[in-house]
Amino acid sequence: MSRRLSLIGLCLSIAAPVMAEPVDILITDATIVTMDAERRVIEKGALAIKGRDIVAIGGADLAASYEADHVIDAGGDIVMPGMINLHNHISMVAFRGLGEYEVENLLFDVMFPLEKELLNRNLIHVSARQSAIELAMGGVTTFADMYYHEDEVARATKEVGLRGVLGETVIGFPVVDSEKPYGGLAYAEKFIQDFKDDDLITPAIAPHAPYTVDKEHLLAARAISDKYEVPMLMHMVEFPDEYEMVLERHPDMANARSEIAYLDEIGFLSPRLLAKHVIHLDDADMDLLKERGVGVAHNPKANSKAASGISPAWEMMKKGVDIGLGTDGPMSSNQMDILTVMHYVASVARLRLHDARPYTPLELVEMVTIGGARALDKQDDIGSLEAGKRADLIIIDRDAPNMQPGYDVYAAIAFGAYPGNVLTTIVNGQRVMEDRKILTIDVESHDAEWKAVKDRVKAFAETLEGGIRNER
Ligand SMILES: [Zn+2]
């Protein structure tokens, strides 16, 4: 001991004192996929996190300038921006796997009866927490959500430590959090006031769709979005027969060229709008979305599973529409990870266009990182790894067999990676998952609450025709 002390004393006396800057987390020996403007990939890179921010990013020599409470030696693994899932209804995980056997109309025959009988604050909260765990374990750090009692989704999201853009639903009939139609407007306003300054939650308003919300209430939702400067989330041109469905609630639309042209004419389209699905539209509609700065969430797994169609997402991207990827709720697409959506996006576009060229791996990785951030208008805070931005990042196991040989890191991520390859998830500077262990909540007590939710749902689903399994 004395020898060591004297050696340190000697070093101090002869070397110029280099003060290492204290930080909270230091990641070393990483393959850093920055997604910055130059799309730099830094081999053997280092990244320092202090509080909620990335304070430095660079090569191996950077590490010596920082002293951290917590050092993560990435051993060559990939460090990339946390992924963004632009469309979800995470509390519906309680109903995942129901109505999968030749149900004629999933929405009306299974989903609405389940929601009517079972939804309450507890189910929404516990299920949201369950989904947030799944999202974190799949490398999603930010997600957009639309549901009821969205304040419960917000609380669960904060418990797990994810970033959420959460929209309270506005719909033209009575639902769990409102006895009268369109009660979501007042609910949303209170929710927005309560969470407006939250570090992780961006409260939003979510008119469900033009076929469930009339003109007056669409415009009322837009007014709230403008007043509080919060996002507006809505399903749009999702179904092949949607025009007829919308016409019933909007007779004025008969004079408009299309649903999107009509929404523009009434003054609904806005740069704060994030439109979900956006499948059945033409070239002029796409130009209109670009002109109005509308963001788009492309959810091809849910859309193909429901036979709704394949969005011309590729064409929208080429026109410069801000477009990212989503999954839709766990009852529609079942899986909530965004990693495996990238492969699917390219595959269905290539089938649709009979052309194997659309989407480079880099373009796909852009869609789940900086592209998704742009669609949410959060590109100044998240979506790339740069000093001064929030520390939202994930570590992907580069040694996993399915990630080998990994000559091109973008191809390995976009076409090869599975959610289970995500080792560590950090959001707003907080370690949410490390080495595949959730650190932010007591998982055991969560599991007990989740089991009670599942038992209750199962008991009712067994009484519902087509709920668990058809006899056919
Ligand atoms: Zn949806």
UniProtKB/TrEMBL annotation:
The keyword Signal applies. The keyword Cell wall biogenesis/degradation does not apply. Pfam families: Amidohydro_1. Residues 78-432 form the Amidohydrolase-related domain. Residues 1-20 form the signal peptide. Keywords: Hydrolase, Signal. One of its GO terms (molecular function) is hydrolase activity, acting on carbon-nitrogen (but not peptide) bonds. Belongs to the metallo-dependent hydrolases superfamily. ATZ/TRZ family. This is Amidohydrolase. The lineage of its organism: Bacteria, Pseudomonadati, Pseudomonadota, Alphaproteobacteria, Iodidimonadales.
